[in-house]
Amino acid sequence: MINFIVISLIAFAFIVLRVKYKDTFMKFKSFVFALIIFIMVLYIVLYPREIIDATRDGIILWANVVLPSLLPFFIGAELLVGLGIVKFIGVLIEPIIRPIFNVPGEASFVFAMSITSGYPMGVKLTSDLRRNNIITKNEAQRIISFCSTSGPLFMIGSVAIGMFNNPSIGPYLVLAHYLSVITVGIIFRFIYVDEIQVSKRYTEKRNIFKEAVNQMFKKRQQDSRTFGKLLGDSVKEAISTLVLVGGLIVTFSVVTRELYLIGLIDYLISAVKFITKNTILIPNEWIEATVIGFIEITMGCKITSDALTIPLTSQIILATMIISWSGLSVHAQSASIINGTDINMNSYILSKFFHAIISGIYVHFMLKLSNFTLNPIPKEVFSQGIRNIAYYSWVSKLLFSSYMLLTIVIVLIFIGFFIALIKNK
């Protein structure tokens, strides 16, 4: 009761100061942030073993999973943009993607890379396209709304198999996640409608093949860097971004651990219990999973899968929403990546909120319509499968990501040629 009253008073003070006394609020906010940093550092000193464990977990996750999975995509994407191949693909595919999302064809490349590699690939590519003035600010806002997704390997391999021990959950997670993000993209199509008239020129008759080739060479000439210089810059930019992502992963791993050490999770559970007293019975595990999932995607999904007091269908819905929201950890990565551009971070967060809500609705109806039942993996198969996933070699992950990158480019070019053949008839 006392903890809840204290938290409520602090929240009320924030609101009053923000509305009535803006200058005082800014000073108070700075003081609160300084106090939070001081408390975090203090807990690092008081609980070094727990903090070291959290740091190690974050580094292992980054080094064994994120680095080999994203390195080929980051380097390859920089090269493809610099060589003009992304522009070539964009011109070919624009006739179908512009009417749907009101964005240029380059968004098809961003979307394909995002759904294959996962967070934060879509944000990285959108930021690069904006920095190179390939897309406008409004187009960047629309692209980033539906090109920030998780990858199927995480949803199926890590969540469905690794956490829920239930491969039949995988298709529900993937389908709801991607259908909802497409829905969000269509919704954001009608934002900044002043640019809709741009799409009219894509209904005109023209030789798409010739235009695609001309645009590719034009982009290459504008870049003007030699291939060696372009390759070096691509590697340097990729490593810099991955180090940034790794640092944020470790930071939020430590922050999550400190939330437990401070006891804030218990305070929040008590606060929700007090608010919903005698009205709604919410299990403690549900509150914990929601709070942690709001901050960090992997731990949120893990706690959700372990919440035995929550029905399986509710676990799936919550996990889907956590994956779509992606957590403050991914949001921080995205904010760092788009820093220096004019892309609005608030618009991005709003799109992720819509993504989470809509994905939860979609998966709810999918589970209802399919009469979903539990179909777990036999224990011995599950153990062997997890072992294979956990000990998949670093080089194998790197090669697989490279293979996926090459496949994406080939498939997109093939689709572009097919569209161009139809349009030129």
From TrEMBL:
One Pfam family linked to the record: Gate
Query: What are the UniProt keywords, alphabetically?
Result: Membrane, Transmembrane, Transmembrane helix
Q: Which domain of life is it from?
A: Bacteria
* Matches recorded under NCBIfam families: spore_ylbJ
Q: State the protein's name.
A: Sporulation integral membrane protein YlbJ
Question: What species was this sequence derived from?
Answer: Paramaledivibacter caminithermalis (strain DSM 15212 / CIP 107654 / DViRD3) (Clostridium caminithermale)
Per UniProt, residues of the Nucleoside transporter/FeoB GTPase Gate domain are 65-162
**Where do the TM regions start and end?**
28-47, 59-89, 143-163, 169-192, 238-256, 308-328, 349-367, 400-422
